[in-house]
Structures are given as C-alpha cells and as structure tokens.
Specification:
The chain starts with 6 loop residues before the first helix and ends in a 14-residue tail after the last helix. By secondary structure, it is an alpha/beta fold. It contains 14 helices and twelve strands. Helices cover 39% and strands 18% of the residues. The protein has a seven-stranded mixed β-sheet with strand order 1-3-2-4-11-5-12, sandwiched between helices. Strands 8-7-9-6-10 form a five-stranded mixed β-sheet, with helices on both faces. It folds into two domains: 7-137 and 245-357, Periplasmic binding protein-like II (D-Maltodextrin-Binding Protein, domain 2), CATH 3.40.190; 140-243, 3-Layer(aba) Sandwich (D-Maltodextrin-Binding Protein, domain 2). This is Aliphatic sulfonate ABC transporter substrate-binding protein. Belongs to the bacterial solute-binding protein SsuA/TauA family. InterPro entries: ABC_SsuA_sub-bd, NrtA/CpmA_ABC-bd_dom. It comes from Streptomyces tremellae.
C-alpha cells in the first residue's frame, strides 16, 4: 500500500530530503533514485498493555541487510515487546522515500543505510532524525569474472559496477581505488578503472552477458554474482578495523522520540531480542528472513545464494558510530558530499538502557551523541 500524503506535506518532505549536492541519495547512499512506491502491512497488536502511542510505524527494506526487521516482524518479536501498541510496517526500495516518509510523519522509526541517515540529518539542520541503534555490519564484496580479472592489478581498464553514483558502495570503491593510486573521475566514472553505475536489479544480467567485469555490491547481489561463476576479489569487511562497518542503522524521528520514549525503548528492546535470537539460531533465522522476503516480494532467494550471503552479514546492536564518520569522510574525499556536521546525530541512551537492563555492555556514539 502506498504511503499517502497531502500535496503540501509531500512538497515539504521533498524539500527536507534534498541532498547536499545535486545528487539524490540511495537506500545506502548519497546519490540514487527513490523507489516508485512503498508497501505497508496492516497494523497488528499482540495484546497486553498499550504504551503511550496507539501504534508505531516502522519502515525497512526487503533486503537481507535488514534482517533484524525482516525476522523481528515475521516472528512477532517487535509486537511482543510493544504489547498493546500496534506495529504497522512499510517497506521501501530506496532511502529517499523512507527519509521522505519519516519527515512527513508517515513513518516513526526506520531501518536504513548510513548515507541516507547522514543526508537526512544534515539536510534538516540536525532536526529530522536521530540514529538510535545498529542492525547490521558487512555484507559488501567486490566480485569479478575470474577469466578476466585474476588479481587486483588486472582491474585496470576493466568495467566494474556499483549500485548508484555516490551511494555507500560507490563511495567505498572510489576510496579504495584512490588508495591504490588509480584515478577515476567521481562523476563520470571514467578513469583507470571504469566505474559503471547501475541498479542492483540489472547487475547480475550485465555480469552474465559480459557487459561488466565485476561489481562492488551488497548482499545478496554479491552472492548472486558468485552463483554466476564470479569470484570474490575484495570483501569490504577486510578493509575495516575489526572487520566491522555499519551497513544498516535504526533511526527515529525526533518528534516521535520526544513524544513517545517508551515506545522507542520497546522497539529497541524488540531489536535487541531479535538480534539475540538471530545470532543464537542462524539457520532458523536465515529461513525466517527468506520467508519474509518471499512474503514481501513474492520470490525467495535461491538456497545457494542465501547460504553464501547470510554468513557475511553480521547482526549487531552496535551502530558502529566511528565507521559512520569514516564513511562520511570517504564521500567528502571523493567530492560527492560537502563536509557534514554529524554532532548530535546519535541518541543511544534508550538502547544503552535496554542493554544495561540485560547486563550487557553499552555502546558508544563516538562523540557524536545528542546532549
């Protein structure tokens, strides 16, 4: 079901979501197109005591890197922790529409990539959202045709796809190429390596037909390329300290956080409970996530693709705040983003309250917390 808004609210939301550059941001980035619509599940209630809001509207993507939302909704864990407050879910295909919905008040809490969170926060002057928790790390690889590319040096002169100009994976690839001493124009993608920006939905076919020689992409696209005979040349996790970097955060509108802190805390309790269950039951969780994907998209992932993709995604409560700053710095270095002021983007007090209540270590906002 499409998210409905009045024309005035839509204009205001769009204005609030405009990027720092002329680019539009993606589901994981600074530069991609919004999806053409969103789908929503009816609000449901698990019974029990109602909190300060009748319902909470949660947005997320039908994507394995959003496994916390997929599994937590599918297994009713969020609803259990929310009691009599109903859960209403909406799925999106890209970040701009979810940020727009958050700004318009159509979504209260969202699972979203780091770049949309950065752009949504900075474009509103720090007033639209807060990052309140983590969800996933990793799940990004450079997969190549081994017949054409047998080593890193063999990348020169080849065509490598990324999901969109300026998106998180595009920025990561440009940053990595720069570190190798190769020159690529960030806007055109032309240079020592040709960077081809194309939607993940067409990347597999382009790889199969030889139109591209590889791709720096998230799961499950990376594993779909592996299923077509590709080889992993770079696992992005290997480029980060402790092999961890944020790929999915939990954000909340500041107005909802202020009005309904008990609901926000309950959603975070649901997230922590879901993540705990996922990590304790990987095989059942994998099946649950795939069942949710089939329900949302009408098509489950192939077992070979699912088995390859799942282990590379690390489910975590920690938003890995220091890596958010690093990802923003990479985008600035690439010339795709003006230097953002991220001070205040995090409010991890509700999450840390939940973690402390369970005797678990709290997490850091890396000096970027709201005070």
């Amino acid at each position: 079901m499409s998210v409905l808004r009045t024309s005035a609210r839509r204009r205001l939301a769009v204005a609030a979501a405009l990027p720092l550059t002329a680019l539009l941001l993606t589901s994981c980035g600074y530069g991609s197109k919004a999806d053409k619509g969103a789908s929503a599940a009816p609000a449901s209630s698990g019974g029990g005591k109602k909190l300060s809001a009748d319902q909470v509207r949660i947005g997320y993507f039908p994507n394995l890197t959003h496994a916390t939302a997929l599994v937590g909704v599918q297994r009713g864990i969020f609803q259990k922790d929310l009691g009599g407050t109903r859960v209403k879910t909406t799925t999106f295909n890209a970040g701009p529409s979810e940020i727009e919905a958050l700004n318009a008040g159509s979504v209260d809490i969202g699972f979203i990539g780091p770049s949309p969170a950065i752009n949504g926060y900075t474009q509103s002057g720090g007033k639209s959202l807060r990052i309140i928790g983590g969800s996933a790390s990793g799940g990004v690889k450079l997969v190549v045709n081994p017949k054409k590319i047998a080593s890193v040096a063999a990348l020169k002169g080849k065509k490598i796809a990324t999901p969109q100009l300026g998106n998180t994976q595009d920025v990561a690839f440009l940053n990595w190429l720069s570190g190798k001493g190769w020159k690529v124009d960030p806007q055109s993608g032309k240079g020592d390596v040709s960077v081809v920006r194309e939607d993940n939905s067409v990347t597999v076919d382009a790889f199969r037909t030889g139109q591209i020689d590889g791709a720096w992409v998230p799961e499950p696209t990376a594993s779909q390329l592996l299923d077509e005979g590709g080889k992993t040349l770079i696992d992005e996790s290997d480029l980060w300290p402790d092999k961890k970097f944020v790929i999915t955060n939990i954000v909340v509108s500041q107005s909802f956080l202020k009005a309904h802190p008990d609901v926000v805390e309950a959603v975070l309790k649901g997230s922590v409970d879901t993540n705990k269950w996922i990590n304790a039951n990987p095989d059942r969780a994998k099946a649950s996530a795939n069942a949710a994907l089939k329900s949302l998209s009408g098509k489950a992932l192939k077992p070979s693709v699912l088995d390859s993709a799942w282990p590379s995604i690390k489910i975590t409560d920690d938003p890995l705040a220091s890596t958010l700053q690093a990802e923003a710095d990479h985008a600035v270095k690439a010339g795709l983003l003006k230097k953002p002021d991220l001070k205040g983007i995090y409010d991890l007090d509700p999450l840390n309250k939940v973690l402390a209540s369970e005797g678990r270590p709290t997490v850091s906002d890396a000096g970027l917390g709201a005070r």
